[in-house]
Write a structure and sequence with these properties.
The structure holds two protein chains of two kinds. Chain A is mainly beta. Chain A folds into two domains: 7-178, no CATH class; 186-314, Cyclophilin (Beta Barrel). Chain A is 12% helix and 31% strand. Chain A has helices at 40-50, 202-207, 279-283, 298-315; strands at residues 7-12, 16-20, 58-62, 67-70, 74-82, 86-87, 90-91, 97-100, 105-107, 113-121, 125-126, 155-158, 186-191, 210-217, 221-225, 236-241, 246-248, 256-258, 265-268, 270-274, 290-295. Chain A has a seven-stranded antiparallel β-sheet, with no helix packed on it. Chain A has a seven-stranded mixed beta barrel with strand order 13-20-17-18-15-14-21. In chain A, strands 2-3-10-5-8 form a five-stranded antiparallel β-sheet, with helices on one face. The longest helix of chain A has 18 residues, at 298-315. Chain B is α+β, with helices and mostly antiparallel strands. Chain B contains five helices and 13 strands. Chain B has helices at 19-35, 61-74, 100-107, 111-118, 213-223, and strands at residues 2-5, 8-12, 40-45, 49-54, 85-92, 122-128, 135-138, 153-156, 160-164, 167-170, 175-177, 180-184, 205-211. In chain B, β9 (160-164) and β10 form a beta hairpin. In chain B, α3 (100-107) crosses α4 (111-118). The longest helix of chain B has 17 residues, at 19-35. Classes of the chains: A mainly beta, B alpha+beta. Chains A and B meet through β16 and α4 of A and β1, β2, β3 and β4 of B.
Chain lengths: 321, 224
């Protein structure tokens, strides 16, 4: 007899909570954004601690967390931002597999570090796959719960937990591997496809000052404010592909850092691309925070991509999916 | 060939919006689709370039660029498949096309003439982008080529037909947008509830047909 899938009820939605996995791959040519977790590294760590497949979906929780009721006992791990999670008054350790009792509540408090937390659950959040992914993309109404952010009285089903879930309770990411999210990180960038659209000193200007994350920043991209990045002539190009990490500069000379929900194509010149290994640092920023840039070569960026993944595989090997 | 990131490389075929460049892009895309290149994740063809996404753990930029270079050599500007022509009814002006009067003034035409002129040519789908199923169509008759709105609208209705310079396009779903809205179609461009979710594909042709509001309402009812 099939058992009832465990449920999580939303008592309070929080500021902006969405279902995210590693994103929607293969449909950008039809105008569909990749979306997925803003901080894929934090999502991967949670899934791997629990023995989930890498692609399992989780809740991405932004700045002010939701209040959730666990109808049945579930094994969870909270990764990414530390938003002071508690259950029935007790603090929940970050980056650690924890058993939630049936009837227990999960709440969040003040922002201690970072901006986006991930609630990963043994078995993963389930729901209707849309174009191969559960990731919520609000602007196109795809994924998650009818393509929207979580609201009060929503409920989530959870997939069958991996057989190893009970043994994983207490499993934790070693302190030394935990990221230190700051409010003014330096991220590395590689040259963008239109670096020649900018004056010779543009890269120097980009890398020698810091940029503020403005309030016009969301999962799609961060509008930054800082030293102006002058174009040689036009800021516009005939539309072509853009990707997460692209640093595009419209005619107002202020850069926009594209993030997970960015559209597949765009028409502004791209000065640089933030490397994947530093995406977490940017993903954990909120409006008012700032970031600085350091330029490296495309070759170095490729090597860092590999070493970053190799390190994660060494600390927490992927489980068979 | 230019790296876009550690996991993507853009192959450029030109810098302008023109038929030949776009045909080269689509022929190259078809060749890449067929080639089964190891580590390739997806390809995004646009007006004038194609961006190839790959898994840097399975391949590397140097290898993939070598694989792609061989395919660019063979890409010729011949359509890889017969192009489909889609007839798309449009209710021009009124509540459906708030910017038609401005576009008409720009073209020194009456709003009705501007709508007729827009529907008088067959457009090519150069690419899809912006949002699921959004077609970039070209090119509009020169008098109608009106720049984008200075400030984008917060809300553009689903099915809205817009103009941005020499491009015209259709918003498949309600969204913010800066194109000049001249009309609206009841045709659904993107739906997960049918076998073919995306109505249009790059290389297809689109023929707009003016309809009245009454017919629009009737057709919208049938779609729902």
């Amino acid at each position: 007899m099939p058992t009832k899938p465990p449920l999580i009820h939303v008592l309070h939605p929080g500021l902006f909570t969405t279902v995210q996995d590693l994103g929607r791959c293969g449909y950008q040519r039809f105008g569909v954004s990749v979306s997925g977790a803003m901080d894929p590294w934090a999502l991967l760590v949670g899934n791997r601690l629990l023995g989930n497949p890498d692609r399992a979906a989780a809740l991405e929780i932004t700045l002010h967390g939701p209040e959730l009721l666990f109808e049945q006992a579930l094994t969870i791990a909270l990764t990414g931002a530390d938003l002071s999670p508690t259950t029935n008054g007790f603090a929940i350790p970050m980056w650690t597999v924890v058993a939630m009792q049936a009837g227990s509540r999960l709440q969040f408090g003040t922002r201690r570090q970072g901006a986006r937390a991930y609630l990963t659950v043994a078995g993963g959040i389930t729901g209707p796959m849309m174009l191969g992914s559960l990731s919520t993309h609000v602007r196109s109404g795809l994924g998650g719960l009818a393509g929207r952010a979580v609201k009060k009285w929503d409920q989530f089903c959870v997939g069958p937990a991996p057989r190893t879930a009970a043994q994983s309770i207490g499993r934790s990411l070693l302190e030394r591997y935990r990221p230190r999210y700051t409010k003014s990180p330096t991220v590395r960038v590689m040259p963008g496809p239109q670096s020649d659209y900018f004056t010779d000193d543009a890269v120097q200007l980009l890398t020698s000052s810091s940029y503020r994350v403005t309030t016009e920043s969301d999962r799609m991209g961060y509008r930054l404010e800082g030293a102006e990045l002058p174009h040689r002539a036009s800021a516009e190009i005939v539309s072509e592909a853009v990707c997460v990490g692209s640093l595009q500069v419209p005619s107002n000379r202020q850069p926009i850092l594209l993030m997970a929900d960015c559209q597949p194509t765009g028409g502004y010149a791209k000065l640089a691309t933030m490397i994947s290994a530093d995406r977490s640092l940017a993903a954990q920023l909120a409006p008012g925070d700032s970031l600085s840039f350091r330029m490296i070569s495309a070759q170095q960026a490729s090597e860092l991509f590999r070493s970053h993944h190799a390190e994660l595989d060494r600390i927490l090997p992927p489980c068979c999916s | 060939m230019i790296p876009l990131s550690e996991f993507a490389v853009t192959v450029e075929f030109g810098a302008t919006i023109d038929l030949r460049t776009n045909e080269l892009v689509l022929a190259f895309t078809a060749a890449v689709d067929q080639a089964g290149i190891s580590g390739l994740l997806e390809i995004v063809p646009t007006y004038r370039s194609a961006t190839v996404y790959f898994d840097p753990l399975l391949t590397d930029a140097v290898t993939i660029m070598k694989d792609l270079r061989a395919l660019t050599m063979n890409a010729t500007a011949t359509p890889s498949r017969p192009s489909l022509t889609h007839t798309i009814p449009v209710w021009y002006g009124g509540a459906a096309g708030p910017d038609l009067p401005d576009v008409a003034r720009h073209a020194r035409l009456t709003p009705e003439e501007a709508g007729e002129l827009h529907a008088s040519v067959t457009y090519r789908v150069f690419m899809l982008g912006f949002s699921p199923g959004f077609p970039y169509l070209g090119t509009v008759p020169a008098p109608l080529a009106t720049p984008r709105l200075p400030t984008p609208r917060k809300h553009v209705a689903a099915g809205s037909v817009g103009i941005a310079g020499s491009q015209t396009g259709i918003y498949p779903q309600a969204s913010p947008g800066g194109w000049r809205i001249i009309g609206r179609t009841p045709v659904v461009l993107f739906s997960l509830h049918r076998r073919k979710p995306f109505l249009l594909a790059p290389g297809d042709q689109v023929q707009f047909v003016p309809i009245e509001e009454e017919e629009f309402q009737q057709l919208s009812g049938e779609q729902a």
